[in-house]
From TrEMBL, chains A, B:
<dbReference type="InterPro" id="IPR036388">
    <property type="entry name" value="WH-like_DNA-bd_sf"/>
</dbReference>
<dbReference type="InterPro" id="IPR000595">
    <property type="entry name" value="cNMP-bd_dom"/>
</dbReference>
<dbReference type="Pfam" id="PF13545">
    <property type="entry name" value="HTH_Crp_2"/>
</dbReference>
<feature type="domain" description="HTH crp-type">
    <location>
        <begin position="154"/>
        <end position="232"/>
    </location>
</feature>
<dbReference type="InterPro" id="IPR036390">
    <property type="entry name" value="WH_DNA-bd_sf"/>
</dbReference>
<dbReference type="InterPro" id="IPR018335">
    <property type="entry name" value="Tscrpt_reg_HTH_Crp-type_CS"/>
</dbReference>
<dbReference type="InterPro" id="IPR014710">
    <property type="entry name" value="RmlC-like_jellyroll"/>
</dbReference>
<keyword id="KW-0804">Transcription</keyword>
<dbReference type="InterPro" id="IPR012318">
    <property type="entry name" value="HTH_CRP"/>
</dbReference>
<protein>
    <submittedName>
        <fullName>Crp/Fnr family transcriptional regulator</fullName>
    </submittedName>
</protein>
<dbReference type="InterPro" id="IPR018490">
    <property type="entry name" value="cNMP-bd_dom_sf"/>
</dbReference>
<feature type="domain" description="Cyclic nucleotide-binding">
    <location>
        <begin position="23"/>
        <end position="140"/>
    </location>
</feature>
<keyword id="KW-0238">DNA-binding</keyword>
<dbReference type="InterPro" id="IPR050397">
    <property type="entry name" value="Env_Response_Regulators"/>
</dbReference>
<dbReference type="Pfam" id="PF00027">
    <property type="entry name" value="cNMP_binding"/>
</dbReference>
<keyword id="KW-0805">Transcription regulation</keyword>
Amino acid sequence: MALQIATGALVECGDCPIRHRAVCARCETDELSTLEHMKYYRGYEAGQTIVWSGDRMDFVASVVSGIATLTQTMEDGRRQMVGLLLPSDFVGRPGRNTAAYDVTATTDVVMCCFRKKPFEDMMRKTPHIAERLLEMTLDELDAAREWMLLLGRKTAREKIASLIAIIARRDASLHLRPVGGNLAVTLPLTREEMADYLGLTLETVSRQISALKRDGVISLEGKRQVTIPDFDRLVEEAGDDNDGGMLA
Amino acid sequence: MALQIATGALVECGDCPIRHRAVCARCETDELSTLEHMKYYRGYEAGQTIVWSGDRMDFVASVVSGIATLTQTMEDGRRQMVGLLLPSDFVGRPGRNTAAYDVTATTDVVMCCFRKKPFEDMMRKTPHIAERLLEMTLDELDAAREWMLLLGRKTAREKIASLIAIIARRDASLHLRPVGGNLAVTLPLTREEMADYLGLTLETVSRQISALKRDGVISLEGKRQVTIPDFDRLVEEAGDDNDGGMLA
DNA sequence: CGCTGGCTTGAATCAAATCAAGATAAGTGG
DNA sequence: CCACTTATCTTGATTTGATTCAAGCCAGCG
């Protein structure tokens, strides 16, 4: 039962919190007002499945708030998360009408949706949208490839450190804080979801988080609140080329 | 020393073997003739590095013939292949000027190159190119995500079976043969390269190939020539949802 | 209260890595 | 043509990092 939650009074594209990062980022005022008329908001509760893999999908959308995940499942139940969708991320593929992955709301989520057909037409007429979508897709491809290195070659400890570092970076870029000395982040995922993302079991995730805490790389307030006393140390533990992309 | 190999008499875009799959696939005759004047061929010998990660890259290109790989390397030498480039695949990212990965020729390779700046200008003027590039990038993203499932959740045996199945599929789609009963493929990679692709060691790759052979899933002529008596059996061993994408 | 879901921790097991030796094949130069 | 080198691959023995199986903790909640 697709219970919808309040989508609030969001209407003006000009005031949209994801205005400058979403697929519409490059649009001019007139283009924006066209989108304004096409769009509709939809809310999903934490835990709710937004789309099932294989289902017909007649819309595309941007995540406005909240966090969603993309996961693949094998017949015997093994699961691998293949994407983490944060505000401004795009869902759905123009030119395909069934979903390739399960999309699940991890927190309450609000999405800015467009019916697929009109959106595709608009895209053809509006290079700004296609351009931005290409750029976003290339970024996602890079992220996926970085994740391939993590999944294929990193140890459990490095995987956990990498995940925390990535969440911290995204968090910082969203709130425009520098990732410097002492900083705190909230893990948006359960241990099991982290395991699905990292290609581990939830027990291993738990153990490695405990180990990083024991070794003073992180400290914990409760189970979700992480403080990072020394970000460089964390990045080192992640095994990354430590420049690690202060992206534009 | 960037020794170039003969690039042959390829000149006419109309006769190009990758005409219908490459980034230029959707171009009209006039657009094609513009590209015709911009393009230049370049050859690389097997084993040669085409670009180093981090290097300035002032061109983009399509693979015309041969096979190249994209790999990431950690400081301590651990390597993960993040892409396998076959004829018609695109190399380089418009809007970025340094390479994100090492690109290496696995066999002798011929590439159809464009200097980046003119190509970007052309892209802005020619929606057909941007459109096709978006489509290709979305396909690559899907492939990367499929690979994430493999890297994160599959066993060594499943990984090997998956790799062989994928190579067989691509091979068939390139030569327009159906992937039916009995078919043969040549592995385009050494055991070590397979290991880098699959997130394994070369010893494990060797052992699992032997095991698949012992169990009659495949048979070998030499080290590279693989015959697949029953493709469905192979797909089953790969742990895939056996429909497995007879892509358009 | 007494659950229930999320998490932690321990002990045993196992799949793949590592370490090590040799086999096979393809040059290369005397 | 043959000895020598080198690259690639196979196979075996051992080790190890992560999984599996199992128990119990903790916070929130009906």
